[in-house]
Design a protein that fits this description.
This protein is 81% helix and 0% strand. The chain is mostly helical.
Length: 53
């Protein structure tokens, strides 16, 4: 039986693979999607920086 920690690691690995794929195909994405993705990343980064700063 897997525990929460194993599930978290699997989810993190999956997200990293997805982000890697997006980075490799960035120029193929429509500008609208690029903008939305950048906005999401900036929002997440700001949130994390508030918690740690």
């Amino acid at each position: 039986m897997t525990n929460r920690r194993d599930n978290t690691r699997k989810n993190e690995a999956k997200r990293l693979e997805q982000i890697k794929f997006i980075m490799e195909h960035w120029d193929e994405l429509p500008e609208r999607i690029q903008g939305r993705f950048e906005g999401t990343i900036l929002t997440a980064s700001d949130f994390i920086n508030q918690k740690t700063g």
